[in-house]
Every structure is written in C-alpha cells, then in structure tokens.
Amino acid sequence: MKVSHAIKSRMTVRQFLDRPVPLETIREILEIAKRAPSGGNLQPWKVHVLTGEPLQALVREVEAKLMKGEAETPEYNVYPPDLVEPYRTRRRVVGEALYELIGVPRSDRPGKLRQLARNFRFFDAPVGLFFVLHRQMEIGQYADVGMFMQNIMLLAQEYGLDTCPQEAWARWPETLKKHLSLSDDEIMFCGMALGYRDPDAIINRLVTEREDFENFVTLHGF
After folding, report:
1. Beta bridge partners of 192
2. Which is it for strands 162-166 and 127-134: parallel, antiparallel or unpaired?
3. C-alpha distances in angstroms, 217 versus 83, 211, 214, 220?
4. Predicted model pTM
5. I need a labelling partner for 53 at 20 to 30 A (CA). Which of 11, 38, 90, 139 fits?
6. Is the separation of the CB atoms in 190 and 165 below 8 Å?
7. DSSP the chain
8. Which fold has domain 3-79+119-203?
9. CA distance linking residue 170 with residue 157, whole number of Å
10. pLDDT at 143
C-alpha cells in the first residue's frame, strides 16, 4: 500500500465488527510505528493495550458512572475554551453532519449524549489503546506522540484495520489511572479504538472535508 493511499483512506471509524485482532498484528504495528520522529530521541510515548476482560471491565465501570451521572475533571482541555473562527465553525459543521447522518435531530440532547457515550465502549472495537506521557513532558513531546499515533493509524490501513483516536477519554483521568495502574508522574493523553470497520454502519459513511490548499498554505520564494 502506498503511503498516499493510506493517508487518503484513513478515516475515523465509529462502529467496529466483533472480530479479534491478533496480538502479533498489534505488535508489528507498534514495532514499526515507534520509528516516528522524536525530538532528542526522547520517545516520550507509552502505550497501554487493552482487550478482552481488562477492556470490558473499564467499559463497565465508565458506563456505570455515566448511568449515575458521575463525572471526573479532565486534566487538560481537549478543545480550547471559546474557540475563534474558523475553528469554531469547523467543529460545529462536522458535529452537525455526524448527527444528521445517524438521524439524531439537533434538539435531541439525550441522543447526542448516547452517541458520545459510545466513545467509552470504543465503538465496539476489540482493542483499546491508551497513550501516556510523563508529566514533565511539554508541547514538543505531545507533538511526538501525535506523530507516533499517526504512524499507528496509517499502518492499521496496511493491515486491513481501522482506528478512532479518542481524546474523549480525557474525561476519565482517575478511572484510567486505576485501570492502567498509572503513577502520579504519568498523564493519560489520548485513547484509540482499533479493529475492523463495520462496512454496513451508516456512521462510517461520514467523510470530513479539508480546506483548499490556498486556505492553509503560504508560499515564500516560489
């Protein structure tokens, strides 16, 4: 598979098949992905990979807390407060497109919350990954982890798999600290669902737009 094809075919999948992913496949993907660029070769990423009962135990606990209306305080803002334009509109448009696709009206707040809660079931994916950093790390190291995650998502395409990066898991820092046995020096950055895409799921038909070249590139000296 060409890199260009992997980039173009990668998408955020929000419904997976009930089909296990072999450990050897996961190992191969992570072994290759670790070649991501890393300033000073810090390699700041740590990855927790959950499947089977450990994954289901986490899902059950979060679902129980949601049913009780419980919540935890995120350790960072997934999105900046008071987003300025054009970022605010981009976020609104993609949200509206998703809910329209799955038939959830704009006024249906319970329906939106139910869809949000599906994040915490990994959209039924058989594998959940969590990316953890030492608290000493700064913005440069978060960029390193992002490139590492991108490697994983592109490699998944080569192996016939799909992914969904999930910053939504930042909502449950204390629960994740317990389930992943994190130390006080560690922070959970992001989750990721990994598995085989459900080709019949309507929600997987969502294709997000990207800005035209002229809108995000400034050329100098050409």
Report:
1. 129, 165
2. unpaired
3. 21, 10, 6, 10
4. 0.95
5. 11
6. yes
7. --HHHHHHH--B---B-S----HHHHHHHHHHHTTS--GGG----EEEEE-HHHHHHHHHHHHHHHHTT-----SS-SS-SSPPTTHHHHHHHHHHHHHHHTT--TT-HHHHHHHHHGGGGGGG-SEEEEEEEETT--HHHHHHHHHHHHHHHHHHHHTT-EEEEEGGGGG-HHHHHHHHT--TTEEEEEEEEEE-B-TT-GGGG-------HHHH------
8. NADH Oxidase (3.40.109)
9. 25
10. 97
Domain ranges of the chain: 3-79+119-203
Backbone angles phi, psi at 104, to 5 degrees: -105, 110
What is the C-alpha separation between 60 and 116, in angstroms, rounded?
15
- Show the tokens assigned to 166: 């999930």
pLDDT at 69 > cutoff 90: yes
8 Å CB contact between 159 and 25 = yes
Give the Cα separation of 13 and 199 in Å (integer).
10
Give the tens place of pLDDT for each residue, 97-140: 999 999 999 899 998 889 989 999 999 999 999 999 999 999 99
Amino acid of residue 217: V
Q: Which of 171, 190, 168, 179 is nearest to 71 (CA)?
A: 171
| Largest Cα span, the chain | 59
Residue 83 is predicted with a pLDDT of 96
